[in-house]
Design goal:
single chain, alpha/beta, Rossmann fold, binds flavin mononucleotide, CoaB-like_sf, phosphopantothenoylcysteine decarboxylase activity, flavoprotein, metal-binding
Length: 410
């Protein structure tokens, strides 16, 4: 019951993602929260007051000028009686209204009148999200102290549309809400940390690529764990099938060279942790057209060239972060390889994991699986950690990073 006793005012905007808000209400109540809902007129085109009222087990507020509601609760009380206001889906319109101080319906009036924190989960067509007006409104709202979760990338409800604009999934929104109430100490407050995660894809031609089995689970968990300790986390993610972590600024890349450019553009930082399984090689050139299979001719010879070493580049960079941490995925001579990597790459410590099939970690092994067993290799020796879930490894590693950064000045 992580949200026991918390009062959430959920503002539901008029987008197709409003159906996910029904599930959000359930997830919040499961965790002990009391959920009261405000619906815009547009929201009621997508889901009914009946469903929202039944799931929240409370009266649903929808009309600023409803005499009964205004007499019983009133829009000012409604905006103040909550511990947190969550807007999901936050439409482009609701963002524009709050960014510009409009208050011409119950939802926008409540948002303007509140003295409580506001968390928005935007959902809109990718072009609406990318429009300069929405970009400006988003920046204004961030400056005004509004928090955001998502949007994420993916397929849109409209057929044939994809991109950034999908509302975060209900459980991600729940995690962002829990983070708002997390009053534990934040030893990484004021620290900027770069994390890389996932595999890279190196194109062979427009349809084929070289990749590896990295899922991004360890890197994404670490980004989330660092954010929980208060860090400003910038995650540079290769192509993965998992959601962006809540409270983390995520940049999506495909190739090693794009990952390197993204990481370097984020410097300076207090720490950088390289969890991504970056391809060591790429093909010498990606074919412009799909390489055809020609009868009688054998398979094409792929000529490989070396990719940039992102960890070593940052480890020896003029703007080197105070703390540089690398991950070493090895299948043999794990400690020897990790120790060699430590000095060659200019890292402070290496998190070595055995990704061989017989690592004893299953199902799925380390790469792609949910568990990990790591050793922390530094100049002062090797620390063996027991087999843990990737989230637990992330939490422990985040504590270790916080400990190492403690002595530096913010
Ligand atoms: C089928 C349909 C889907 C829509 N989906 C969205 C959406 O996902 N995000 C958005 O910002 N607007 C969406 N709109 C437009 C909003 O409903 C419209 O801007 C409305 O005025 C928003 O009102 P509200 O912000 O008061 O809820 C959609 C409209 C239609 C007809």
């Amino acid at each position: 019951m992580t949200l026991s006793g918390k009062r959430i005012l959920l503002v539901i905007g008029g987008g197709i993602a409003a159906y996910k808000s029904l599930d959000l209400i359930r997830r919040l109540r499961e965790r002990g929260a009391a959920v009261r809902c405000v619906m815009t007129a547009a929201a009621q085109q997508f889901v009914t007051q009946l469903s929202v009222g039944a799931l929240s087990a409370d009266h649903v507020f929808a009309d600023l000028f409803d005499r009964q509601d205004e007499h019983d609760v009133g829009h000012i009380r409604l905006s103040r009686e909550a511990d947190l206001i969550v807007v999901a889906p936050a439409t482009a319109d609701l963002m524009a209204k709050l960014a510009n101080g409009h208050a011409n319906d119950l939802a926008s009036t409540v948002l303007l009148a509140t003295d409580k924190k506001v968390l928005m989960a935007p959902a809109m067509n990718p072009r609406m999200w990318a429009h300069p007006a929405t970009r400006r409104n988003h920046a204004t709202l961030v400056k005004d102290g509004v928090s955001f979760v998502g949007p994420t990338k993916g397929e849109m409800a409209e057929s044939g549309e994809a991109g950034e604009g999908r509302m975060a999934e209900p459980l991600e929104i729940v995690a962002a809400i829990e983070a708002q109430f997390d009053s534990r100490p934040k030893p990484l407050a004021g620290r900027k940390i770069i994390v890389t995660s996932g595999p890279t894809h190196e194109p062979i031609d427009p349809v084929r690529y070289l990749a590896n089995r990295s899922s991004g689970k360890q890197g994404h968990s670490l980004a989330a764990a660092l954010a929980k300790l208060g860090a400003e986390v910038h995650l540079v993610s290769g192509p993965v099938a998992i959601a962006d972590p809540a409270g983390v600024a995520t940049v999506h890349v495909e190739t090693a060279r794009q990952m390197q450019a993204a990481v370097e553009s984020l410097l300076p930082a207090d720490a950088a942790v390289f969890v991504a399984a970056v391809a060591d090689w790429r093909t010498a050139g990606s074919a412009e057209e799909k390489i055809k299979k020609v009868a009688g001719e054998g398979p094409p010879a792929l000529q490989m060239v070396e990719n940039p070493d992102i960890l070593a580049g940052v480890g020896h960079h003029a703007k080197r972060p105070y703390l540089v941490v690398g991950f070493a995925a090895e299948t043999q001579d794990i400690l020897k390889n990790a120790a060699a990597k430590l000095s060659k790459k200019g890292a402070d410590f290496i998190v070595a994991n055995d990704v061989s099939q017989d690592s004893g970690i299953g199902p799925g092994g380390v790469m792609g699986g949910d568990r990990n067993r790591v050793r922390i290799v530094s100049k002062s020796g090797v620390e063996e950690w027991p087999e843990l879930s990737k989230e637990a490894v992330a939490a422990r590693l985040a504590e270790l990073i916080a400990e190492r950064l403690k002595t530096t000045v913010v």
